[in-house]
Design a protein that fits this description.
Length: 548
Amino acid sequence: MINLARTADLWWKNAVVYCLDVETFADSNGDGHGDFQGLIQRIDYLSELGVTCVWLMPFYPSPERDDGYDITDYYAVDPRLGSLGDLVEFVRTARDRGMRVIADLVVNHTSNQHPWFVSAQASRESPYRDWYIWLDEPPPDAEQGVVFPDKETSLWTYDEQAGQYYQHRFYKTEPDLNVTNSAVRDEIAKVMGFWLELGLSGFRVDAVPFLLETKGNPGGARLPDPHDYLTDLRAFLGRRRGEAIMLGEVNLPYPDTMAFFGQADGVGDQLTMCFDFIGMQAMYLSLARKDAGPLAKALTERPIPPRDCHWGMFVRNHDELTLDKLSADERAEVFAAFGPDPDMQLYGRGLRRRIPPMLDGDARRIRLVYSLLFALPGTPVLFYGEEIGMAEDLRAEGRLAVRTPMQWNPGRNGGFSTADPADLPGPIPEGRYGPGAVSVEAQRHDPDSLLSWIRLLIRRYRECPELAWGDYTVLDVDDPAVFAHRCELDGARLLAVHNLGDTPTTVHLELDGAAELTELLSDAKPAVSEDGRLTLALEPYDCRWLRG
């Protein structure tokens, strides 16, 4: 029997995380701008969906040169979104419904309008001068590693007032903080402590490898191993709030990502969770090829994190859908399948699309993708609007194409003030999740809607701790289009089978002793032969969860 007390103690291992932007989620007063009061009024929707942890994208004061990721004050709420009091009311109300709240921790850089940088550029004698990274001349490789190649050509920009070049991994309006300076490290801990005192249960840490990068930094000798700093932050987090987590954005190959968990042979002492970027990209390659091979290979090769650590699973996030860890030929395959128009692509490495239009509005494939999200070993992370099949708006610039307002009511822009149909994101192709079936209200009471499907998946996921906690095995299947894996924990076993192909198929699986299985996603009655073999007839894009 599974020990539910133990699984509940490490809440993040089988959480359901929901990422949202306060600015685009819910508008409380009709001014066309989302806010915390609007979010509070929609809290029961998140509770009914089954969300257990809300991840807030940046809500801090910002000049909005980078959709809020350029921060001018780490200790405040953007007044357009509300006040600190509003945030605390949201956190309290979420906890009343059994949901924790985490927030983006964006400390790789600040806005160039942050008072720290304004002071630093004004004088070499400023106490904040060394809070940023300065050089008299840019290094020879200044053009390498630019994150936004459509906007920037170098990682270094000359500042006339300062008389030096400053480093910026992202936009030139976002100068990098210098973590080799102990005062900067102390300040970051103070920022974390502030929000923990207001009730947060942790942070999604932005751009972690860049945060720890000290190559070329004149102060690098002061921090010989930057991972020591990550260890210090994790220890600080544990002292201030033992249940709190750090969910890290680390888009690196598996062996390199493992270093960000900490000690692989013990309890992880750095990031609590890391996103599985490799598995996500392999999944899209498998979907494009209708071949389970790439996904099976990635999951087979994925290392096991240290005890108490975990992988974060996602199929869509708030940035471009990055495919940068695929080869050029593999990436071209995914582009051809899901975003052949150059306007659908971004930076030559990703897609600025949401899933329904990528899959031509095919309800079967859409349901399959989300079944994979909740069945694959790890903690599922949803991006707002995924549960209702929201489409992207390619008229918006760059990544903003997937950050359009949440659509609450038919014919209105996400429940915001405008009712002009021209303001709605572009329609997705005809199908179950086509025009007229995208908003929350159009789906809320429809048992066949995508929203109902996501609710079912969440309910089943939460009922089966072995999915998140168990040991998993990728199974050999006699059809290359079928991906099957088994999760086991304390005598409980769940078998998940997904047909990525567009033709019906029948597969035969050895069950190693399981005599009875219960179908969790339908009313089917799976039959197991006396010799322990399961025969499954699968429709195109079929998905089955069987527990026994």
